[in-house]
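Hi there,

I know you've been waiting on this one. I reran it after we fixed the sequence typo, so this is the corrected version. Both the input and the resulting structure follow.
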Amino acid sequence: MKKRFLLTSFDTWLSDQDSNSSDDLLQEVSQVESLPHDLKFLRLLPVDVMLASSWVIQKVEELQPDYIICCGMAASRQRLSVEEGANQGTIFLPTVVNLEKLVLGTVATDISSDCGKFVCEGLYYAVLDYLQQSKLSTRCIFVHVPVLNQENLLVILADFLLIINNLALI
């Protein structure tokens, strides 16, 4: 049976941005035909914690995915970053996914403990909290995506596809 994934990305938030690298990556993933999983996309989320969270939670309730991969742009980073968890005030919610196993075999991916203080951390926290409160077995990770270019696109895409496949096995 195919594993069900929900993959999310954000819209741009600055007027000079042509695109958001998280959405650029999901566009590339959507064109890969050989994946043995059922991938559903919720792209171009509004850059607003409350709206984005409600859209994702609504989609989770509708699709009941096995896995959620939320993606956000990290323009200052050079590699993919899989986030350990998210903070809200003094409360830290970790992902239940074994990140060491998740990133096995990747070449351009780091495990990060800095989800940022922008909408990314707010969304990640809200989804982790929803899954915990609802006692769902759905597993969620957050991946920060660097700006994509000709030099890094193939390695970033390959790592992301490996992360999807590794997640399906955890």
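Quick highlight: The mean pLDDT is 94.

Best,
R. S.
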